[in-house]
Amino acid sequence: MPAGDAERVWFPEMLSRLEEVDFAWNNWASVTAFCDAMMTYRSELRKAKGIKDPLTRCPACHTISRMRLRGISVRSFLFAIAKSDLISEVELTRLDRQWQQHRKANKLDKFGRTAKPKLLEEHCCS
């Protein structure tokens, strides 16, 4: 496994699929659905390549365990399409602002889902 693949969010195979994207940018639900599909695709790629989740150490008890990878955020998607030269920096700034406004108005988390308050932070020794 190449160095850094355990923590990689966007694999080259995923970046090539970004060119297929054609969204109506006033419909953030389609963007979040695409991010969810990319997360599933990333899981399949990781499994096919034999990539294990990265290791982490619990700050409380110092136990080493495998970290569960989170989803692909809408903002990560926006930066990926900008890096792939599919949108300009000006469009990135505009879309990022629109996303932040939509997220705040609808009380969504960074993945576009209804935000749930965290009562307790979980770690391996709780």
Task: Characterise this structure.
- The chain is mainly alpha-helical and 126 residues long.
- The chain is built from four helices and two strands.
- A two-stranded antiparallel sheet has the order 1-2.
- Helix 3 runs antiparallel to helix 4 (89-105).
- The longest helix is centred in the N-terminal third of the chain and has 22 residues, at 28-49.
- The two termini are 32 Å apart.
- The mean pLDDT is 80.
What best-fitting shape do the alpha-carbon axes yield? globular
Number of domains: 1
Question: How much helix is in the residues?
Answer: 40-55%
Q: How many strand elements? A: 2
Give the topology string: H per helix, E per strand.
Answer: HHEEHH
How much of the sequence is in beta strands? under 5%
What is the structural class? mainly alpha
Oligomer: single chain
Average pLDDT, rounded to a whole number, is 80
Largest sheet: 2 strands, antiparallel
Distance between the termini: 32 Å
How do the strands line up in the largest sheet? 1-2
Return residue spans where pLDDT drops below 50 for at least 5 consecutive residues: none
From the alpha-carbon coordinates, what is the Rg to the nearest angstrom?
17 Å
Q: Give the number of helices.
A: 4
Q: Features of this protein?
A:
single chain, 126 residues, mainly alpha, two-stranded antiparallel sheet, 4 helices, 2 strands, 44% helix, globular
